[in-house]
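Here we describe the complex-level prediction in full. Unlike the single-chain runs in Section 2.1, the three entities below were treated as one system.
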Amino acid sequence: MTAHAHAAHLETSTGLDNRKVAIWTFIGSECMFFATLISNYLVNKGRSLVGPFPHEPWTSPTGQHFEPIFEIPLVTLGTALLLFSSLFVVLALSGAQRGDRKALIGWLAATIACGLFFVGMQVYEFTHFVHEGLGFTTNLFGSSFYTLTGFHGTHVTIGVLWLATVWKDALRGKLPPHKSLNLEMAALYWHFVDVVWIIIFPVVYLIK
Amino acid sequence: MATRVLDQHQAHVAHGEKTGLWSWITTVDHKRIGILYGATAFFFFLLGGIEALLLRIQLGTAENTFLSPETYNQLFTMHGTTMIFLAIMPLSAMFFNFMIPLLIGARDVAFPRLNAFSYWVFLLGGLFLNASFLFGAAPDAGWFGYANLTSKQYSPGLNVDFWMLGLQILGLASMAAALNFFVTIVNLRAPGMNLMRMPMFVWMSFITQVLLLLAFPVITVALILLMYDRFFGTHFFVPSGGGDPLLWQHLFWIFGHPEVYILILPAFGIVSEVLPVFSRKPLFGYAAMVFSGVFIAFLGFGVWSHHMFSTGLGPLADTFFALTTMLIAIPTGVKIFNWIGTMWGGSLQFRTPMLFAIGFIAMFIIGGLSGVMHSSPPADLQQTDTYFVVAHFHYVLFGGSIFGLTAGAYYWWPKMFGRMLNERLGKLHFWLMLAGFNLTFFPMHFVGLNGMPRRVYTYPKGLGFELLNQVETAGAFLLGVSFLVFLVNIFLTWRKPRNAPADPWNGATLEWSIPSPPPEFNFAEIPTVHGRDALWELKRERGGTLPEPARVSGVGIHMPNPSYWPLVTAVGILAFFVFLMLLGHTGIWPVVASFGLVLLGVFKWAYEPAG
Amino acid sequence: MESHVSTQGHAHPTASLYFKVGLVLFVLTALEVGLYEITYGEHTGALGPTIKPFFVPLLLLLSAAKFALVGMFYMHLKQDSKLFSGVFVFPLIIAAFIIVALMVLHAYTFAFARSG
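The structure predicted for the assembly as a whole is:
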């Protein structure tokens, strides 16, 4: 039987911690942010005047040929990594709440590693696309794609930074069970970032 | 716990309430932050008023050359932007800040440093926006910045950049504050104050915070897309690159329509506080008021294209949005009847706050009627882009929001500053403002229907617009005089001793149970609430009145420490946007460094002992 | 009597549950990609066009399932206070409406303008 982190009786009107209410409220607000970015992508879908295109080949008026630009295997790997990172962070949180420092530090490190990998994959993908002729201003598809996935990637990066800060605290023994909310907040943000990608992956990459 | 009874001076000293500039710069006290918001917002309001007077001078004569077209465009853009983002919203924020904790029986907001941060970002954003005047490049594409007028091609100067980035800064302030007040209202209510026992101002403010949190992200994205078009050469709103200028209008108004409810709901709340007190009767139909507010907020996200009836959306879209717009008139109507129902049979006290509240109802009804006329697409085709619309929104924004906020000012002034505003000057202010306001804006219905277009710097002679425009201009100056009266009142009141009673109006809500102005910790003991109109409830239990609360020392009550990290973070944000604007000149590294400063501020803030 | 109120519910999910959810998420993702390959792959013969009309709804269903799983189990919405679910779901509803409305408006205007 492991000892649980029983939060102190909170004197708030709901009995819930202010900061946990705050992070969820922030996440709710961010839903609208990403909804607008996704709307922009969908509204511009199929409206590009020139290629390269996501799923179709294209030959420019000057005779230059472009293959469909998306590479599904790579993105699928990134998607899987992000999903696993959500698993890892919730295992880390469970460790934090139980006072299991090893679990906390280990699983959190795995989460951060997955996050870094995902960002790395995106950087590679962007660089590759630019090399293949899809710049930020090349066409509406490029602009919308880079904007949407770029902002998502920025959110992932901020999440990695946040988790790394919490990890640093954990290493220094400054994340006892009664402070596990610090990790829980970062984890909720991280899950949200994952959940946004759960939408982006099919909508952008899989739907033609 | 609080023990010794003190006089005012002793109370200040005993609790270490500091004076001086540094104490204001590092303050995390919601009352001080409220006053900062109010003073800053009032300054910007006067600025916006001067901008309006300049516009009215220009329009007072046909084919006038007082202002060039370019200057006119800058002034009307800044007038709108200032009044909305730098006046009405922060004036509402003044009341959110000062009053919400008091109304719910709390000692402060949920996140005091985030509160300070919101203010500083607002101040810096307002200064950034107005700094544009120093460069002769004030925003000039309207407060709504339609594409593709705002594209680099058609607006090559800095004007639109100032507007675009300035709004982003202000948006951050609004969202941070909204998050704070949302959590505060959810979590910091006094024991016994369940949601259906909250004062109506708290309810309306709560709904406003939800709207802020959901609407601002949309304009944030829209402004980002515009920035990409202008700075990096994307074509989101540029037709030649496949983009759609109409997309801007959609995104803007998806934000913009909830924004107008953000502008009016706090005033709804204030009026719902004032009317019961000065009618000596509880608010009529409390539950209906709550649900109509929630319904307005929800439906407010489904009406936006009524701003776009002339853009060729097609009959299906037009019909959908016409129906939702007509529908949203219903909950608004419910509120109006409930306000009247509150007064009906009450013992009416026509003090200054009450006059402004009643004025609000009358003016808002007029504004609502013209609004409902807009909801019909064929009718709107005549009204849109004319002064008829200008009349409508000034009736709801000035006749509505400003009258409501002014009622709040007179009502809560004693609580905030410990002095009562002069009643005779207050009444003079009211009548001059009512007269000036109607003289200015009522004729606009007529010139509008007769074809005078809006957003144009002049009009030709001989079209019959001259007389009414002169009347409007005279009215505007009368409005200005009414504000002079208010300023005189404020000044004279400032010199009075700080001895207002805790409860000058026989109030129904908790803020009147503590001294005027309140001690830093607000309540010596957090009250327990047993019903709506908690203070009337309490007075009934104690035989009708409560004794004047003593000033106590507050020893043992721990309040959060002051901090300068919110200001540092805010400065970092300003720097970020300034260097973003200067990207072409100073490159990426100052932008990165500014972001670094933001991160530093945030980390220091997070790890600082909050106390 | 325990009267504590905490940041998490009483039914603490076990690591085993987390792993199971993770596995399901992986499988759902594999299904998504599999569906894509079947519909648009060159070597699936007649199966591709048969599935095509159902492709988008199925895909959205799969991603909605993943969304719900992460929300309910990893973000603990299932056992936590309903306030959090409310604060998350309400914006989602508005967000979904906005996305659909913008798509419909643009498709309609696009088609309308074309035909007009």
